[in-house]
């Protein structure tokens, strides 16, 4: 309590006289006549200063001091000592008494002792406030810093995304131009060419938005017990004709009688589609080797895992420097033909399944992606 003082003395006269002096000095005074009572009142009132006689029957001043400091080390305790109590006075300093005044008490000396105690209280309060403000300041600055970082990341994403969309828009515009020329000149080849360009870019924007959607949703898989070959079969079915058009052999090597696993077939379909699309791109790019381009999709039961998929191609392969970056969002070596979202989204889906994705690749030799999906918890149904 503000400016409150607990006065402890076994002599009623001293309590009375000192009580008056202290009240005159502006203190709110509570008194106790022995150590036990003092402790009880102390715990109830929590005064910031205690003024106690050092010699009292039963619990003496030193013991009271010790107990008070135990309870609240920041309490200022001033000891009242008799003339011959030097030893006790020294002992009390050891227990961190603030000061001692000798009987009979001279008011001026008491005032000085009390002022000193109050100064100590004020300094401690300032220090506490300062520390508190400092902590607050550090908290605020850290928050601002984190916010700035987050905004910078959002800004970068928006920039990259705009770039990807601009590329697609460019493709669509080009297609429209060729298509219009075809209409103008009634030129069937232009018409076909323009149409293909538009179709390709419509696919691209569809895929981009699907991947982004998956990415933003946090990709919580909808688990169901299903045949792991199902998405692999669908992807081969979807992509084989396109690969053939490019002169690429696509084959499926799917394990027979694979056990069903608990996974999200639709999301795994997207992953395999991304890998196969990349493999087709890698086989399309011109490289000196003129061997027949091949892509294989494999599925196997794997010890300790539910299923392992492999997508293997003998296309362009990757340098080590590229390999390190392929899972970063918007990393692409395909210029306007790629957005660099495919593998990032794929990895996110695999992570959500608590699976792993690995890559082996050599430049001008080919690439092998491996995906492992755990059996899942809901296998008993
Ligand atoms: N099978 C592969 N062979 C060679 N390089 C590959 C292969 N798969 C991925 N890459 C490299 O990884 C990069 C990132 O692939 P990712 O699928 O994330 O993006 P992208 O294919 O460029 O664009 P998109 O978002 O349209 O898929 C590719 O640009 C390519 O350089
Ligand atoms: Mg891709």
Essential attributes:
5-stranded mixed β-sheet; 381 residues; Rossmann fold; binds adenosine-5'-triphosphate; alpha/beta; 5-stranded parallel β-sheet; binds magnesium ion; 3 domains; 10 helices; Heat Shock Protein 90
Write up what this structure looks like:
With 381 residues, the chain is α/β, with parallel strands linked by helices. The chain folds into three domains: 4-105, 3-Layer(aba) Sandwich (Rossmann fold), CATH 3.40.50.2300; 148-217; 224-380, Heat Shock Protein 90, CATH 3.30.565. Helix content is 54%, strand content 18%. It contains ten helices and twelve strands. It starts with a strand and ends in an 8-residue tail after the last strand.
- Count of alpha and pi helical runs: 10
Order of helices and strands: EHEHEHEHEHHEHEEHEEHHEE
Q: What molecules are bound to this protein?
A: adenosine-5'-triphosphate, magnesium ion
Gross morphology is elongated
Strand content: 15-25%
The termini sit apart by 67 Å
Output mean pLDDT.
Answer: 89
Summarize the structure.
With 381 residues, the chain is an alpha/beta fold. The chain is built from ten helices and twelve strands. Helix content is 54%, strand content 18%.
Secondary structure layout plus pairing:
Layout: E1 4-8, H1 12-24, E2 28-32, H2 35-45, E3 49-53, H3 61-71, E4 76-81, H4 86-94, E5 99-102, H5 107-185, H6 188-217, E6 224-226, H7 229-245, E7 248-254, E8 261-263, H8 265-284, E9 293-300, E10 307-313, H9 320-325, H10 342-352, E11 356-362, E12 366-373
Parallel strand pairs: 1-2, 1-3, 3-4, 4-5, 7-9
Antiparallel strand pairs: 6-8, 9-10, 10-12, 11-12
Helix pairs in contact: 2-3, 5-6, 6-10, 7-8, 8-10
The structure holds adenosine-5'-triphosphate and magnesium ion.
């Amino acid at each position: 309590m503000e400016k409150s003082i607990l006065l402890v003395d076994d002599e009623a006269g001293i309590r009375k006289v000192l009580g008056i002096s202290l009240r005159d000095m502006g203190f709110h005074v509570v008194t106790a006549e022995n150590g036990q009572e003092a402790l009880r009142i102390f715990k109830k009132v929590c005064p910031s200063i205690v003024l106690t006689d050092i010699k009292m029957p039963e619990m003496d001043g030193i013991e009271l001091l010790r107990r008070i400091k135990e309870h609240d080390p920041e309490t200022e305790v001033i000891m009242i000592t008799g003339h011959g109590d030097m030893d006790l006075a020294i002992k009390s300093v050891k227990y961190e008494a603030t000061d001692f005044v000798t009987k009979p008490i001279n008011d001026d000396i008491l005032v000085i002792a009390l002022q000193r105690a109050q100064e100590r209280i004020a300094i401690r309060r300032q220090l506490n406030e300062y520390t508190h403000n400092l902590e607050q300041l550090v908290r605020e600055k850290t928050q601002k810093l984190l916010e700035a970082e987050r905004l910078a990341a959002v800004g970068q994403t928006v920039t990259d995304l705009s770039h990807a969309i601009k590329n697609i828009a460019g493709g669509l515009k080009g297609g429209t131009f060729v298509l219009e020329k075809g209409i103008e000149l009634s030129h069937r080849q232009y018409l076909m060419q323009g149409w293909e360009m538009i179709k390709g870019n419509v696919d691209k924007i569809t895929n981009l938005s699907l991947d982004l959607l998956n990415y933003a949703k946090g990709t919580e898989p909808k688990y169901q017990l299903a045949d792991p070959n199902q998405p692999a079969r669908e992807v081969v079915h979807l992509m084989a004709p396109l690969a053939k058009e490019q002169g690429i052999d696509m084959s499926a090597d799917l394990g027979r009688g694979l056990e069903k696993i608990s996974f999200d077939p639709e999301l795994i379909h997207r992953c395999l589609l991304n890998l196969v699309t990349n493999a087709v791109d890698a086989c399309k790019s011109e490289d000196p080797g003129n061997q027949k381009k091949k892509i294989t999709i494999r599925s196997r039961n794997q010890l300790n895992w539910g299923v392992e998929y492999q997508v293997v191609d003998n296309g362009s392969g990757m340098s080590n420097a590229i390999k390190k970056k392929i899972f970063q969002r918007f990393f692409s070596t395909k210029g306007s033909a790629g957005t660099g979202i495919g593998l990032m989204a794929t990895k996110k889906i695999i992570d959500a399944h608590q699976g792993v994705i690995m890559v082996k690749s050599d430049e001008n030799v080919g690439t092998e992606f491996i995906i492992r999906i755990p059996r899942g918890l809901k296998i008993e149904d």
